[in-house]
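User: For my dataset I need records formatted as: sequence, then structure tokens, nothing else. Please produce one.
Assistant:
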Amino acid sequence: MENITASEVAGFGVGTLLLCATIAAPKVDAFISASQRSSLGLCKRCGGLQVIACSRCRGTGLTKANGPFSLDLIDNLYQSEEFKVKSVGCKKCQARGHFSCPDCSNTSTS
């Protein structure tokens, strides 16, 4: 890069800030929601629901047959009514989609 103008530097700076904000947004959201739950007297993890969504199937109970990282990109892009991606039950949660909250189950048994 021979001659970088001030506008280009500002553009790189704004782009970097936007990228960092995008990456940090889920963590900031989780922190804020946990603090709100604790201020309301609810469980920090589940919010009083006593269940937590499965991280593999994201609460649906189903996963793709060839795993979360399939290499059939063309098949995924051009799905028609005849061709559907096969879904199987999630093995991590036994197709329930959720687990009981470990924090709530520890306090309720004591």
